[in-house]
Amino acid sequence: MSHSFQVDLRGIVDLLSHHLYGSPRVYVRELLQNAVDAITARRVAHPGAPASVWIETPGRTPDGTLRVHDTGVGLTEDQVHELLATIGRSGKRDELGFSRQEFLGQFGIGLLSAFLVADEIRVQTRHEGAPTVYWTGYSDGRYAVESGPERAEVGTTVTLVPRRDAADWLAAERVVELARTFGEMLPVGVRVDGELITVETPPWELSRAELFAYAQETFGFVPFDVIEVKVPEAGLRGVAFVLPRPANPAAKAGHRVYLKRMLLAEGAEGLLPEWAFFVRCVIDASELRPTASREALFEDSLLESVREQLGDQLRGWMLTLARREPQRLQQFLSVHNVGVKTLALHDLEMLRLVDEWWPMETNMGRMPLAEFRRRYSTVRYCTTVDEFRQLAAVAAAQDLAVVNAGYVYEPDIIERLPLLDPEVLVDRLDPSDLATRFDTLDPATDLGLRPFLAIAQRRMDPLGCEIVVRAFDPPGLAALYLVDRESTFQRQLRETQEVVDEVWAGVLAAFERAEAATRPQLVLNHRNPLVRRVTALPSPELVGLAVESLYGQALLLGHHPLRPADSALLNRSFLGLLQQAVPGAQPEGEN
Ligand SMILES: Nc1ncnc2c1ncn2[C@@H]1O[C@H](COP(=O)(O)OP(=O)(O)OP(=O)(O)O)[C@@H](O)[C@H]1O
Fold first, then answer.
1. 364 — phi, psi (to 5°)?
2. How far is the CA of 89 from the centre of ligand 1 (A)?
3. Which residues pair with 410 in a beta bridge?
4. What gap in Å lies between CA 32 and CA 198, rounded to an integer?
5. Are the CB atoms for 348 and 342 separated by under 8 Å?
6. Distance 112 CA to ligand 1 centre (A)
7. Which residues line ligand 1 (CB under 6 A)?
8. DSSP bridge pairs for 359
9. Domains of the chain
10. Pfam families, per this entry (predicted)?
11. Burial class (CB in 10 A: 0-12, 13-18, 19+), 589
12. What is the DSSP-derived secondary structure letter of residue 283?
């Protein structure tokens, strides 16, 4: 023997209100949607049939109910039983059960959302050639069908008897606001208490000049540019507004999405590729699907294809700008370079665009990488801003052109340049290579410095640093602390070993190299007058203090991390020098 499921309507309404819909506000959307669909259905058979929807709010009706009237197709008594009173049954599917493309609704649950704000829903409806039917549904699951006076016109009136605690949701002001939010782009005129809330022209049909005004009114900014977008296979048309200010790449870009001209979401995600965070879109699509709550786009292969095509269109806009208005492209890049750089990591065209147009900081002035290559052939670069700041002037003085690739994605972009042209040479600057370009001293001077170097090296030994004296420009720079990449790695390795347990420390030890091969260098500049005086100091104690101070200053200048031993040294050398400098202090060796 077979039985039918029993449905507890209260449970279903609870499910809808707490788990499906974000807020009771959606009741306005669902009622508007049903009214518009009914008009669409009627116009299939009678294209000239009247098409209007009007809402009366409780303040305007004699019994304090909210009424939604439409001139749609109406329902017969049989349809009322089948469609209104059966949850999950929709008149908007074809014989095979597929949702029909011309309608907004598809799930057969929308009307239930009225129970979020009403205890009782009344439907008075007349289908062409059939008597008027009166249906009343209660939130406890009962419903009644009756006959009554004939409606003058074909169509439907849905009446909501407000639930006491939901009266706010039905107040005139709120209803106008919600009807406008959801329905202002609908192709059918909608009035609330006599006021027309639908717009004459939707944004995707506005002229360029009007679009700038629209963006200002809707989003509160004057866009950098407006881009028309289109994906015919999804019945999608719309506009992308380029933000005039940088957007946070981590913040999800939300777009105003309409499906068949009904608002789906003001902050819909997933419409554009993630990198396209520099635009806000307003689009309408007839073929994209909503989730059941109608608050987000359903993720399917069509949405994926839309994302790809919209991404192509935005990329195309940038490339056209590069060709026709390079100045404007540079302005755009100065605002949105992070987005474009992200794109350049995956896309050769974008890489080319960054290469040609994005002015990078270099120690020879700002210029795009392409120009840098034309002038200096090899793209030599620093990977941190600190390293660049420390070495830029010294490198320039040795005629070594260096790019500051210390900002996000720049090293990866530079490393990808050979994909554009295999001839391109890129080279990450190893600071210790710089020292090989410095001049060595003549043998006599070198010999004379031996005693000084012996004392200085003893002071540097506990710090694991090698001291050398070279001559280099600019003469104003007394000392440089140079760490090659390998020793930076080794230092990090040692620091990690100190904090991990024994097993890991053992594993990491396998990577450790002999210390001497990779010691950082403190390079003193013999062209600097102060350094020359320091090398000539008679007192070993003073030499030690001076060398320690130069070491500390070089560390600070290069923004190198200070270990506890370095901080202690800085402190000691500063106080030591102070003692030497302040008259009346204890003489050397008596402390
Ligand atoms: N104003 C109306 N005029 C004519 N028929 C209506 C009206 N409102 C509802 N109906 C009928 O009742 C059915 C159920 O409506 P309901 O809003 O619950 O679901 P739906 O619109 O089909 O789908 P969805 O859940 O996606 O909104 C509709 O398919 C339609 O046939």
1. -115, 15
2. 8
3. none
4. 12
5. no
6. 10
7. 30, 33-35, 38, 70, 72-75, 83-84, 90-92, 105-111, 156, 158
8. 368
9. 2-196 (3.30.565.10), 203-323 (3.30.230.80), 326-429 (3.40.50.11260), 443-484+520-581 (1.20.120.790)
10. HATPase_c_3 (PF13589), HSP90 (PF00183)
11. exposed
12. E
Within 8 A by CB and 6+ apart from 583, the residues are none
Q: Spell 191-221 as b/e; 16+ CB within 10 A means b.
A: bbeeeebbeeebbbebeeeebbebbeeeeee
pLDDT digits (tens, 9 = 90+) for 290-330: 998 888 999 999 999 999 999 999 989 988 998 999 999 98
Could you give the CA distance from residue 191 to residue 196 in angstroms, rounded to a whole number?
Answer: 4
Tokens (6 digits) for 106: 């598809």
CA of 130 to the centre of ligand 1 (A): 19
- In contact, 279 and 339? CB cutoff 8 Å: no
Specify the residue with its C-alpha closest to ligand 1, atom 1: 35
Report ipTM (2 d.p.).
Answer: 0.97
| pTM for the whole structure | 0.75
Overall residue count recorded for the chain in this entry: 591
Task: Please give the number of the atom of ligand 1 that sits closest to the Cα of 105.
Answer: 26
Residue closest to 461 by CA, chosen among 516, 511, 512, 506: 516
Longest CA–CA separation in the chain, Å: 120
Whole-angstrom distance, CA of residue 65 vs CA of residue 78: 26
Q: What distance in angstroms lies between residue 94's CA and the mean position of ligand 1's atoms? A: 14
56 contacts: CB under 8 Å, gap ≥ 6: 66, 67, 69, 193
Nearest CA to ligand 1 atom 20: 108
Cα 72 to ligand 1 centroid, rounded to whole Å = 12
d(CA 348, CA 285): 30
- What is the per-residue pLDDT across 131-143, written as a single tens digit (0 to 9) for each? 999 999 998 888 9
